[in-house]
Write a structure and sequence with these properties.
With about 250 residues, the protein is mainly β. It has 1 helix and 16 strands. The strands form 2 sheets. Strands 1, 3, 4, 6, 11, 12, 13, 14 and 16 form a 9-stranded antiparallel β-sheet that branches. The longest helix is centred in the first third of the chain and has 11 residues. It starts with a helix and ends in a 12-residue tail after the last strand. The mean pLDDT is about 90.
């Protein structure tokens, strides 16, 4: 990672991620997941998928533990897994870092899509039918695969969106580390910097006012008549707990 002010702030946040006085954190390596006795879906996530879907979402038998998010094999079938609570928000004071490692291998379809990141919206057509574009209105920041073989990075405040169309050039079967760092900056217009395989990209400006809390979200959508899978090795999200408190001055 380059020696920038953004990377310096990120390194400080990562240093503090295990101290609950300084930061709060979600992390899963998906090595063991409790499942619902009725649906067999992992109870950790809210699952949104097509009626009658039969494929299972959950841990794969793969070294290191992987989450498989799987959609059925009809055109525009989709599946999204999201945390039940909206634990993170882009606010005026507290930095945030999201990172994950994902892989996917296309099953025949000329078009399919996947998405991962933070979103206030978890619903059908988060990836739009046919085009696989990201939903037009949400709060958050996501990476999403476009049929043109690029992984886009999009930040959004309601319907006002900024997109880097080629944050990563995708080759089928790739394993890639996708992350972004949120810096509140001046408390009015934040800077959201994509970080792909540890390499910083160009930051997006994001208006902070009006932003809502967000879920961690991972999803996939079929482009014709074949089942598709997004594989997730791990997810981590860290946010500064209180930027105005100098924790080093507190008594242990």
């Amino acid at each position: 990672m380059a020696n920038s002010l953004g990377s310096h702030k990120l390194n400080l946040l990562r240093r503090d991620r295990h101290d609950p006085r300084k930061a709060f954190r979600y992390f899963s390596d998906f090595t063991n997941m409790a499942i619902d006795d009725t649906t067999n879906d992992p109870i950790e996530f809210e699952i949104v998928q097509d009626a009658g879907a039969t494929l299972l979402i959950g841990s794969a038998d793969k070294r290191g533990g992987w989450l498989n998010v799987v959609c059925d094999g009809d055109d525009n079938d989709e599946c999204y897994a999201a945390t039940h609570c909206e634990a993170f928000i882009f606010n005026t004071t507290d930095e945030l870092f999201f990172e994950c490692e994902v892989s996917s291998t296309l099953t025949t379809d000329a078009q399919y899509g996947w998405v991962i990141g933070l979103s206030s919206v978890v619903a059908a057509n988060t990836l739009v039918d046919d085009t696989m574009a990201i939903v037009a209105t949400f709060d958050g920041a996501v990476f999403h695969y476009l049929p043109a073989a690029n992984v886009a990075f999009t930040t959004s405040n309601a319907a006002t969106q900024t997109q880097t169309a080629a944050a990563y050039t995708w080759t089928d079967g790739d394993t890639v580390r996708l992350g972004f760092f949120y810096d509140p900056n001046d408390g009015v217009t934040a800077k959201v910097m994509p970080v792909v395989n540890g390499v910083e990209g160009t930051s997006h400006d994001l208006t902070i006012s009006g932003l809502e809390e967000m879920h961690i979200l991972a999803g996939v959508k079929a482009g014709s008549t074949n089942e598709q899978t997004l594989e997730v090795d791990w997810i981590e999200c860290i946010q500064r707990r209180n930027a105005t408190t100098d924790i080093d001055d507190l008594q242990v």
